From TrEMBL, chains A, B:
This is Molybdenum cofactor sulfurase, variant 4. It comes from Pisum sativum. PANTHER family: MOLYBDENUM COFACTOR SULFURASE, MOLYBDOPTERIN COFACTOR SULFURASE MOSC. Pfam families: Aminotran_5 (PF00266). Residues 40-140 form the Aminotransferase class V domain. The lineage of its organism: Eukaryota, Viridiplantae, Streptophyta, Embryophyta, Tracheophyta.
Length: 149, 149
């Protein structure tokens, strides 16, 4: 592994990691993803990795604020409602999506989101649902929703 | 507040908190729920509170192990799959429910769980769905699923 990396760096070293960033990729791995050790994690499409800095911040937030079900009427629920609303707005902003035309809905994952699309899409008898053979099951599942011709 | 508590304790002090537990309720509040300060949180049916000890343990787990999407094929995915499987088993054990007769399914919340019941229940034209006027919207939603007579 060590020699393979050396050879790789000899050829591509100039572009490796974030050459102009405040931390090199090796520093980021050592400080923010220490749990990886020598592991090379590639499944970012399935589930990506959070950094230790992110976890720290979530931990501090969740142990210093009192959150509750955003749909209840208590003070902690209003606080939670506001945080959820701001998070939706941040996602819309990031996507340059106007709240006039778009809503941000949090789901439990890709499968739940795709199911919701299948359920909510205004299917008509002229609708054609097209997908590739290689699509994930969660996409194929949408087949169930268009009216059968 | 302080006098009200004193009066309450004078009458019910013997049974207050967990009188035979390792920590009194005031100690638990001070060490495990420090974020509450003087807040009295009652919405445990909507969303209950986690202790700081629980958060500590989750934090340590998530920053020292590499987890991924439990449905992928990588090492971190297998590790995640095993943890999810064990958690399901723990829930079944806790409910004294045999895996022969029961499956444990994690959902994003009560509404998602009730929707799943509505979708999966083997409705027939003899089915009657009964509910109380006071039921939460998430229960009322099940009305959409029985075949209309
Ligand atoms: C390409 C692709 N789509 C969808 C999914 C399903 O994602 P989720 O588990 O968030 O429903 C996966 C999961 O691995 C995936 O790899
Ligand atoms: C009695 C009751 N049922 C169901 C729900 C919905 O729960 P969830 O937000 O987990 O879908 C709530 C939420 O406050 C509730 O109070």
């Amino acid at each position: 592994m060590a020699t393979a990396k050396e050879e790789f760096l000899k050829e591509f070293g100039e572009h490796y990691g974030y050459p102009n960033g405040p931390k090199t990729i090796d520093q980021i791995r050592a400080t923010e993803f220490n749990r990886l050790q020598d592991l090379v994690y590639l499944d970012h499409a399935g589930a990506t990795l959070y950094s230790e800095l992110q976890m720290d911040s979530v931990f501090k937030d969740l142990t210093s604020n009192v959150y509750g079900n955003p749909h209840s009427q208590s003070d902690s629920s209003s606080a939670t409602f506001e945080i959820v609303r701001d998070a939706r707005q941040q996602v819309l902003d990031y996507c340059n999506a106007s709240p006039k035309d778009y809503k941000c809905i949090f789901t439990s994952g890709a499968t739940a989101a795709l199911k919701m699309v299948g359920e909510a899409f205004p299917w008509s008898c002229n609708s054609n649902f097209m997908y590739t053979m290689e699509n994930h099951n969660s996409v194929l599942g949408i087949r169930e929703y268009p009216p059968q011709k």
